[in-house]
Structure formats: structure tokens, C-alpha cells
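User: Quick sanity check before I run a bigger batch. Here is a single chain. Can you write out its predicted 3D structure?
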Amino acid sequence: MKRRSILLLMCLAAEAAIVPSLTLNELIDQSEIIVHGRVARSWSDWDNAHKYIWTHHLIEVIDPIRGIRTGSIIASEPGGELDGVGMKFSGAVNYAAGEEIIVFLYRTPIGYLRASGAGQGKYTVTPGRRVRANLKGLVLGRQDRALPARDGMTIVEFKARLREVMRSTR
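Assistant: Done. Predicted structure follows.
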């Protein structure tokens, strides 16, 4: 029985990324761009070194909360399928065409914008106009009491809280 439990934990760990839990302030501080938008489309491509596949997501901006004023941006996550090759990375965030989101983005060393906090920076807006954290596959390294409080807020409350925190930290 003990052997099966260890194997199960090893399999779960292989599918999950252990990351430090970020407070809202830390998430904001680590993010160059924050937008409320809708995913228009996605595509995969090799990086410039032709070493890794990245999946890019065109996001039509509904509300530019921080750092951008244009009508769309591209968020990128490592992994995807291209030319018969598939790559998967722990902590990479999934996006779906038509999905409404609030996303916190940082710039990677190769210039792509990626969800902050290994996925903690992506919230899905539900049909009931509430935000849902996208933490599937993440094991948070410490408890953040604020995270459960943010998960399920109305989109209006969530964006008001973001703007309040940004104003108070200037």
C-alpha cells in the first residue's frame, strides 16, 4: 500500500508545478501588462532558436487595466504541437478561443508576454460575471488567504480591487 501511495504522489508531482503563492500585490508588481480581454485565436510556432515550441494567443482587449492601450495583445505560453512534435511544460497556462479572461503578463527574456506566477496571473470570467483562478496543475508553496477571497469575486469587484491596489502602491 505504501508503495502505491508513493507512486501516486510521484505521478501527481510530475503533472504539477510547485510555485510560491503570490499575493495580489506581488502579482501586480510582477506584471508589466494587465488586461481584461477575450481570446480570439491561438497558434503554435518555434522560438527564434528553433528549440522550443510556444503557443501564442491573440487577446482582444476589453479593458486595458495596466500597461497597454491598443486593441489586442499576444500572450504566449511554452509548449504546443507543431511539425509532428509536441512539447508540454509544467506551469504553462491553457487558453481557449472565445474565453473571457483577466490576465497579468510579464515579459520573458526572449520578449514574449506570459502569464505571471506560473499561471496564477490568469483568471477566467464565468458566464455569471465572476472571476475564477486557473490553478489546475499548480501546487502553491505557501498559503495565500487572499487567493480564495479573489476567486469567485464579481468582475466589477475584482477590477475595482486591482485598481485600488495599484493606486495605493504608486
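Residues 18-168 form a domain with the OB fold (Dihydrolipoamide Acetyltransferase, E2P) fold (CATH 2.40.50).

User: Great, the batch can go ahead then.
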